[in-house]
Amino acid sequence: MNKKILIYSQDVGGANYIAPSINYIVNRYPSLVVIHPLSEQTFKKHKIAFYPLSHFFDRIPPREAEIESFSLQNKISHLYCTTSSPYRDLTNSNFINISRKLNIPTFGIMDHWKGYDRFINDHGEIDYFPDYIGCIDRVCRDKLIRLCKNPERVFVVGHPHLEKCFRRKKDERKKRMKWLIYS
Fold first, then answer.
1. For residue range 122-177, what is the model confidence (pLDDT) as tens digits?
2. What is the CATH number of the domain that holds 27?
3. Distance (Å, whole) CA 183 – CA 175
């Protein structure tokens, strides 16, 4: 049947957030990595193989019917994605919404502490909230729980990109300290 996980990234921040986990998923599960033009440079920098969104769609954002057809044709079993503002480009939001309609489980990430309106459609409904969502910390978790009304859907997973930056700075401080000690 060849079902696969769709990994989708739209914004640069989200791309940096999910990049450390992508090779783990791709090396263990049948996957399809599709990237919005905004994230392409980030994926190239991390040397992650992907298909540009334009490989599958003639226009960006693609129409909902096109996303549905794409999901069915590519036998998508799960969606792992970033979450992006619906105001400029509905692609990310529509992938989540269409997946829900097709009973495809979704896991999204919230890579910062603002923009909680990204989950709400024009009618005030929470159509763009994934089935499960990983977030940075308890502050973000509490806000997301208030929005979705279900704590079992929200997980604190940290922020891999910020943690990597912090470790790098900590390592640099250690090196400087060693240099000062040995000089």
1. 999 999 999 999 998 899 999 999 999 999 999 998 765 556 665 655 555 555 54
2. 3.40.50.2000
3. 12
8 Å CB contact between 151 and 145: yes
Number of compact structural domains in the chain: 1
Domain holding 95, by residue range, is 4-182
Contact 37, 53 (CB under 8 A): yes
Please, are residues 25 and 31 in contact by the beta-carbon 8 Å criterion? yes
> And the tokens for 47?
């040397």
90 confidence band (pLDDT: 50, 70, 90): very high
> pTM for the complete prediction?
0.85
32: three-class secondary structure by DSSP:
strand
For residue 117, the one-letter residue type is D
The DSSP letter of residue 149 is S
Structure tokens at 181: 């000690």
User: How far from each other are the two terminal CA atoms of the chain, in whole angstroms?
Assistant: 64
* Amino acid letter for position 138: R
Query: CA 179 from chain center: how many Å?
Result: 40
Exposed, middle or buried by CB within 10 Å (0-12, 13-18, 19+), for 97? buried
